[in-house]
Each structure stands twice: as C-alpha cells, then as structure tokens.
C-alpha cells in the first residue's frame, strides 16, 4: 500500500500501476477538506515511489465523485476574500500536483463525475467512462464557476465554445455525448471499465498513446488566433446575456475568465480562475443559490425520513373531480406507473381531464421526451369513471372538486362511506381549513390536505397540510406517495391559506393598495419582473390565477385572519371580478390575451381595465422601483415570518423552498427568508417601519424586532 487514508487509498499492482481509489466513509465520494488533503498526500506518495509506472484513478462506489462538499461552503465563503483566495489557490494546486506526476494517468469514471469530480477527471491524461457516467460542471447552479481548474482544462480539451456551453448552462453529459465532444477518450460497459482503463494506461506506459502531448496541450495557452477568440467570446457573451440575464453573475464571469486566460499558460490561467471564483463566492446570488441547494437537501432528507415511517403502501390512487386540475393530478400519478381512478359526476369533465393528460403527453412527444409506449402506458393507468363504487379499492383518494366547503364536505363524507377503512383521504384545497373539512369525516385521523399547484406536471411543490386530528401515519404515507409521484412534499400545519397562499395574498394586497394610490399595473409588473426577478409581476400572476379564484381566496383569508387581511375597499381585483374579467381563463383581466399571426400567445394592457379603475384609484403617478418592491414584498416577508413564528412551517429553509417551488420565487434571491437576511434583519425592520402607517400587513412582529436587535439568523434555527 502506497497510501491509505479515510477517503482514498493507493495500492501498487504487480505490473507497477498505482491504483488511486476513492472510497469515502459516507454514501458518496465528494471533495471535502479531508479528501483534498488526502489526494495531495497520495499524489506526493506516488511521486516519491520509483516503482510506479502509471496511475489509474477509480471509485469503489457506484458513482465516481459527486463534486465538492457544499456544506463547507457557507463557512468558507464567510471568510475574507484574501482567505478564500488562499484556500481555492491551494486546493486547485492539489489538482496541478496530480496533473504534473511524471507518469501517465488514466481516470475511470462510473456514475456521476460532477464539479470537482469532473475536474479530477480533467486533471488526468486519459479519461475512460462507462455507460452509466454523467459528467459535467454544474457550479453555475450555485452562483459559482469551477474553482479547481475546470475553466482552464476543459476549453483546452474540447475547445472554448463547447466548454463555455458546458459551464454556463451547467448541464451534464452522458458518456456518448462527452465522447462526441472530445471530453473523454472511450465509453465502455460498466463491467469492462476497470480493464479498459488498465489497457489504455498500459498503452500509454508503452508509448502507444502520446500522453505527454495531451498534457502539454492542457498546460499551454488556448490555440485561438485573435479573430477566432473575438468571435468565440463575443458569441458566448451574447448567448449568456440573452439566457441568464443580469441577475446571475456566474455565467458572465465564466466567459470573462476563459477570455482573459486564453493567451496564458496553465498557471496564469488558474490565477485568473481563482480570482473569478472568489469574486463570485462573495456575491448575494451565490449565497442565495448555495442556500437553495442546502435547503433543498434539508427538504429532501426530511421527506425521506418522514416517508420511512409509512406503514401503508399506496398502490392505487383515486382523484375526485376531473377537469384541468384533476386531470393534472391523475396524470402525475399515472405517469409514475400508479393506476389512478379519475372520478367525476360529469362526462364532459372526465373528457376534459383526459384531454389535459393527453395534452401534456403530446407536448412531451413533440420535445422528444415521451415515446408512444410511455404515452400509452400513462393513459392506460388513468381509469375515467362516473361510478362512485369504482374508487372502492383506492389506497389514496385525492379530492379535487370545486373550491366550496359545503360541496367538498359532502364529497368527502360520501367518499369515506365508499372506501376501505385504512384508505387515506386528502383534499386538494388551496384555502379551505383542513380542520373544518375534517369535521365531515368520522375518522379525521386518516385525512389531510394535499395541495398541488397548477400546472401540476410543472410545479414541483405539494403542500401536505396536517390537521389537528391527522395521524402521523397518515402524514408519512402521503409524503411517501408524493415522493413516488415525483413531487417535493413540504408538511405544514393548518391555517387559512396554509403557507404559500397565506404569504401570497398579503403580496397581492400590497399590490392592490399601490394601484389605489396611483401606480400603473404595467409599471409594477415591469419592476417586479425585470428588477426583482419574479417570472410574472403581480397583475400578470393574478390574471393567471384568475380573478374569481383570487377574490374567493381573499375572502377566505379575510375571514380567517381579519386583523391583517380584511378585504380592501375598491380593490382593483374585485372590480375586475365583478366586471367578469377573470384573466387568462376568459382572455381578459388586467391584460387582454390573444394570439399573434403565428399562433403565439400575447398580452396587452387592457384599456377596459384602466377605464374600470377610474374613479376608484388615485390619479396615475410614478413610484420609484425601491418603493414598488418594498410595498409588495414587505407584506409577503412579514407573513412568512409569522408562519414560522406560529409553527405553520418548521423552518426558514422549508419556507424558502415552498415559495421557490410553489410560486417561482427568484432563485438568485434564494427564497423569502434568504431575501430578508441578505437585506439584513436590522435593515428589514427599518424598511418595514418606514411603511408601517400603510396598515397591519406592513407592521412587523415583536419576534423579528428582537432577532434583529440580538443579531440572530433564521437559518441557524432551521430544523
């Protein structure tokens, strides 16, 4: 044994090949501080051995290396820039030391080789992957760029254009695509990976493969003349500007880094990479995107832990109420192989539900993501029926009828009489109290909320709402079923609007008050989309939600939380609703919706909407962007804080993921709590106090005031 550590070891075979094997103590290999240190020690041990003729790098696990240990990033990135620069410089030199070994090196990749794992492979002279391999540099998704030599080596291996496409999109490749683009040298079956890598290494040792030339090319300047460089980098910059926009600095920095380093050797190029990495590590976008990753890991871990407690296996679904939402829910179970009864009292609704499922599948076929077999199996898993008895064998029943408490209560009571005693019953309500609905059941312990978001197939979130009498066994089974459907479950406690809608409607209320005070809804939408980063401004979002739905939900919120959410006099949303302007569903709301000559959807600010508001709102005036953002976001932030303080949601991380997955909260801001903390709690308190006279939704709780005064963080409290 040449070297033996806790994460990797090096053994010398009979034919003088040193096998460097990554085998961390955890479930996967990743580059934490310990592994990086051991890699450098192992490399030094190999260099000191005169018996080694070549090095083969592989993993003893089912996957190669998943990347850096992101849990270490938060503390690292809180350091001074000079200290981060020292860290990343020393770490990237570990990969240089490996690359500079005096013997040929072959890296054998199975499964994931992402981020630092990909950079490890790039530091080798030859790369062999098996058919399970996925290789890529996804750092852009964390608001970062590669920091261990990826921006230097990949462009010199596959060309600057291809490398920038890899890095700025963060998309990984399978072995065949990586081979086609020149990133790897061979793709083999998993059972042949080890022997194929040894064979290529022996060829390199024997001089049949010119590994020195390959290495020299990686350490030299990019082979681009002045015109080629100008075309390559200007094209990449334009592509990034169009796709990433101004809110995401990482892809812009990647183009700048590769461009600046094009004429430099490895060491000079790495210095530029190190500096660019540090600059990104200190951005708000990086802090937010790393925060999202960690929050996502927490939510996934919690979901798996809760699901493990499930004692009932869900083998068949039933969806009550077809139509768009019911059809979407039925599709989601069916596409994951779960037989789903779709029951309604109206044949036309059943046909609409089936049409919704078919439409989703047809679009998937057009994009090449669904084949005929998948379409047929999914549709065969949906059993439409008008017969109540057809749901008798279902293990999980999801009620998705009209948002009316009396109708839902009647449907739930009838359902309980039809299904087995151990069947779980859920309501896909968006606002109605689960505790209230539970009163219609004899066994409320097997009942909870299961709130899907529209469109179901696109929106990752499902809010699982625990009622006062819901059993933990029910929650565990529903969380497990949600994961099986490919969705992200977040468990919340019952309250008006639950979590997502409870924080959304104060945002809408802030918007309505802005319009009453004279703001133009198109100006507000522009600021909230272009500056704040929402996929839709509040007027556009209300049109998508539907004015009838929004007016109904605001009434529910007003009844449930009257001290803060009383309906607003002359609310523009109510004016539109009473005028029959429901938004996208009937083509007229704040905007008029139609299609252009090519059949593409269009929207234009409606003159009829402006006319409707006359006499009910102040004369139009201009508000600066900071005031617009403050007046709509403070109410949302305040209500999110109250939800956390009241135990509606268990942690700030879960609240952030719920808004990200349920509403499309701007990822570069990291979620509502990350947004508040990026601003600084003391600054948030001061800003809210500035607008406190506008009403209760702007007035902060004593809890946040105390946290700001004591310098606490919502994330140190995350469960």
Q: If you compute it from the alpha carbons, what radius of gyration comes out, rounded to the nearest whole angstrom? A: 29 Å
What is the helical fraction, as a range of percent? Answer: 40-55%
Q: Average pLDDT, to the nearest integer?
A: 95
End-to-end separation: 43 Å
The number of distinct β-strands equals 20
Number of helices: 31
When the domains are counted, the total is 3
Strand order of the largest sheet: 13-12-11-14-15-16-17-18
* Morphology: globular
Which fold name is given in CATH as the topology of the largest domain?
Answer: 2-enoyl-CoA Hydratase, Chain A, domain 1
Q: Per DSSP, what share of the residues sits in E-state strands of 2 or more residues?
A: 5-15%
What would CATH call the architecture of the largest domain? Alpha-Beta Complex
Uncertain runs with pLDDT below 50, 5 residues or more?
A: none
Output the CATH homologous superfamily of the largest domain: 2-enoyl-CoA Hydratase, Chain A, domain 1
Oligomer: single chain
Biggest sheet details = 8 strands, mixed
Structural class: alpha/beta
Protein name: enoyl-CoA hydratase
Pfam families: 3HCDH (PF00725), 3HCDH_N (PF02737), ECH_1 (PF00378)
EC number: 4.2.1.17
GO molecular function, one term: enoyl-CoA hydratase activity
